[in-house]
Amino acid sequence: MRPPNDNLAAALAERIGDRAILDVVESVYAELADVVAREQPLCRRSGRCCNFAAWGHRLYVTTPELVYFLSGWPAVAASAASAFPGGPIAPPADPADAALPDACPLQSGGLCTVHAIRPLGCRIFYCQQGWDRCSRPLYERLQGRLQDACRTCSLPYAYVEWRASLILLFKRGLISPSPTRR
Ligand code: SF4
Does 180 reside within a domain? Predict the structure, then answer.
């Protein structure tokens, strides 16, 4: 896996709002939501799993998910700005000086500020013991659908670390601490 780079940012910026890509991502998220509704895995809503360093895992995202995230960002960030004190928390301004933050910078007070546009990995992760027996093959299949969507929609495929992606999007001005400034 390569780190996200400027070519990726440019490819994403070109496809913001692309209906064909958004439809596939929505369908993937809907399929997952159906499984979650049926299986009802346990979530303790602690938000601790969004602290990747403490939890000992990492979150990776695909290109179509990033297009979906960017497409929904203005509306979601605007509503988060009123729902969460200080609004969505942006990545550090100078990531060159900083290691990846331990936790997702979009969490505030233990809650996700971008719930409607969070990636597949966030949607599928539950702390219930044994859930991974169901979630692993499901994740692989849904990720495969996102990969297929790149072929059909002529979108470069990438599978990139979430915090590094946010920093890239922030550096390229595709997201900002204040949604009104985008
Ligand atoms: S996007 Fe939301 S759910 Fe996903 S890691 Fe960040 S705060 Fe947690």
Answer: no
Instruction: Please write the tens of the pLDDT for every residue from 45-74.
Output: 688 999 998 999 999 999 999 999 999 999
**CA–centroid distance, residue 156 to ligand 1 (Å):** 24
| Binding-site residues, ligand 1, Cβ < 6 A | 50, 59, 104, 106-107, 112, 114, 118, 122
Mutate to test the pocket of ligand 1, among 122, 125, 175 (most ligand atoms within 8 A of CB): 122
Q: What are phi and psi of 18, to 5 degrees?
A: -65, 110
Please check whether residue 113 lies inside any domain of the structure: yes
Distance from C-alpha of 182 to C-alpha of 172, rounded to nearest angstrom: 11
Per-residue pLDDT reduced to its tens digit, 78-121: 888 777 766 566 555 555 545 688 889 898 888 898 999 999 99
Q: Which atom number of ligand 1 is nearest to the Cα of residue 52?
A: 5
Q: How far is the CA of 66 from the centre of ligand 1 (A)?
A: 13
Q: Say if 181 falls within a structural domain.
A: no
pTM check: above 0.85: yes
Between CA 99 and CA 142 the distance in angstroms is: 30
Residue identifier of the C-alpha nearest atom 1 of ligand 1: 118
Distance CA 175, CA 117 (A): 13
Domain holding 168, by residue range, is 6-175
